[in-house]
Write a structure and sequence with these properties.
Mean pLDDT of chain A: 90
Helix content of chain A: 25-40%
Main location (chain B): cytoplasm
Distance between the termini of chain B: 37 Å
Oligomer: heterodimer
Strand order of the largest sheet of chain A: 1-2-3-5-4
Keywords (chain B): Cytoplasm, Exosome, Nucleus, Phosphoprotein, RNA-binding, rRNA processing
Distance between the termini of chain A: 58 Å
Family (chain B): Belongs to the CSL4 family.
Structural class of chain A: alpha+beta
GO cellular component, one term (chain B): nucleolus
Shape of chain A: globular
Low-confidence stretches of chain A: none
Number of strands of chain A: 9
Number of domains of chain A: 1
Largest sheet of chain B: 5 strands, mixed, barrel
Order of helices and strands of chain B: EEEEEEEEEEEEEEEE
Number of strands of chain B: 16
Number of helices of chain B: 0
Number of domains of chain B: 2
GO biological process, one term (chain B): rRNA processing
Number of helices of chain A: 4
């Protein structure tokens, strides 16, 4: 394997976490006044800004209008200063297009689009600092932004990237672990019902380990959902204090 | 008043037998779940089951629905139809403009073929209309003004002054006293301010 030890004998990872420990999550809703919904989320050193507009009339190509549902339009982009080396093409490259498509599929599963026929919901995510688990942190930030916009959803969507090292699943990978040759799997979950919105993996993993890995990912996602729940409830409390409601 | 309960999307509120679902909730497997992050509101109306709904301080975007009365502004006219921007749905202002069309046949209820759009609407008029169709992929919302209470409410004359309605088909400019043709709405007296 790689020269760096991703999991020590005592069970500690590179940044001192245990195998099932998540990174510290800090989030805020309603960071922008102009957008319908916005959120800023930090998971460890990965920092993401998500902004939601809509539902509004279909823009651009009218032929993509759906007569019974809203169209969800996602755009994933990374700031040029987000990675160790300055990123040449922030969006429009293959990786970003693929991520945008995954985000779209994830949110089409959770947002109740049948309530808004012939309209469009835009979700824009921007990575300000990238330290692993990009897709997962984007999903978490976008969930908060959609809640802030008041768009009805079935449930939260929480995501986590997990990897497999030395027969142990590691939850919430950071960049060093992801690039250290670990087979990483990203899972997006609707925590209450335990329904999986998206599973993504492009590494090699033995079939026998898949079950354990998905188990670990589900547990990690439920952990994330608790944190996001706290953030949303706190934001509602603060908002109600300001407007003077009971 | 007891403090209202906070709820988040996906939170189970009650079972289907206890309450009727209102706005901001959805029904699944016989239970009512919240779909918004906000406060739970339970309203009872006499003998029927209470209606449970979730409200937020800021109202989410409203979409024009079939049968809704909308306030719109005419943006362009054509011998066959007038194109409008929908500004208000009922009394709620929209954050974003939706586009609509009023066809020649939908301007009046009587003598539909003798309608001239130029004598019914002009660009810049504020019109009260009703949504008859969401339209298909190619077209916008279809609106109608074929009722007495629907039609032009505010219009400016060629001189620039706001005109006063004289009859259902004419308005007069207070400065030049020139009469112009419009399809005028007969606004109910209780909605007019003194």
């Amino acid at each position: 394997m790689a020269g760096i030890e991703l999991l020590s004998d005592q069970g500690y990872r590179l940044d001192g976490r245990k195998a099932t420990e998540l990174r510290k999550v800090q989030a805020r809703l309603g960071v922008f006044a102009q957008a319908d919904g916005s959120a800023y989320l930090e998971q460890g050193n990965t920092k993401v800004l998500a902004v939601v507009y809509g539902p509004h009339e279909m823009r651009g190509s009218r032929s993509r209008t759906l007569h019974d549902r809203a169209v969800i339009n996602c755009q994933y982009s990374m700031a040029t200063f987000s990675t160790a080396e300055r990123k040449r093409r922030p969006h429009g490259d293959r990786k970003s297009t693929e991520m945008s498509l995954h985000l779209k599929q994830t949110f089409e599963a959770a947002v109740m689009t049948q309530l808004f026929p012939r309209s469009q919901i835009d979700i824009y995510v921007k990575i300000l600092q990238s330290d692993g688990g990009n897709y997962s942190v984007c999903v978490n930030a976008a969930t908060l932004a959609v809640i802030d916009a008041g768009i009805p959803m079935r449930d939260y969507v929480c995501a986590c990237t997990v990897g497999f090292v030395d027969e142990t699943p590691l939850a919430d990978l950071c960049y060093a672990e992801e690039s250290g040759g670990v087979s990483s799997l990203a899972l997006a979950l609707l925590p209450r019902g335990g329904q999986i919105a998206l599973v993504q993996m492009d590494a090699r993993l033995h079939q026998d380990h898949l079950e354990a890995l998905i188990e670990a990912a589900t547990t990690a996602c439920k952990g994330v959902s608790k944190v996001l729940d706290e953030v949303v409830r706190q934001h509602l409390q603060e908002a109600s204090v300001l407007t003077g409601e009971d | 008043m007891s403090p209202m309960k906070l709820c988040v999307p996906g939170e189970s509120l009650c079972s289907e037998g206890d309450c009727n679902p209102g706005a901001g909730v959805y029904l699944r497997h016989g239970y009512i779940y919240s779909s918004l992050a906000g406060f739970v509101l339970k309203t009872t109306e006499g003998e029927k089951l209470p209606v449970i709904s979730v409200v937020r301080e800021t109202e989410a975007q409203l979409l024009p629905d079939v049968g809704a009365i909308v306030t719109c502004k005419v943006t362009s006219t054509n011998p066959r139809f007038a194109k409008v921007h929908i500004l208000y749905v009922g009394s709620t202002p929209l954050k974003d403009r939706f586009r609509g069309t009023i066809r020649k046949e939908d301007v009046r209820a009587t003598e539909k073929d003798k309608v001239e759009i130029y004598k019914s609407f002009r660009t810049g008029d504020i019109v009260l209309a009703k949504v008859i169709s969401l339209g298909d992929i190619q077209s916008n919302y279809l609106l109608t003004t074929a009722e007495n209470e629907l039609g032009v409410v505010v219009a400016h004359s060629e001189a620039g002054a706001q005109m006063i309605p004289i009859s259902w088909c004419e308005m007069q400019c207070p400065l030049t006293h020139a009469k112009e043709f419009r399809k005028v709405a007969r606004v109910q007296p209780e909605y007019l301010e003194a």
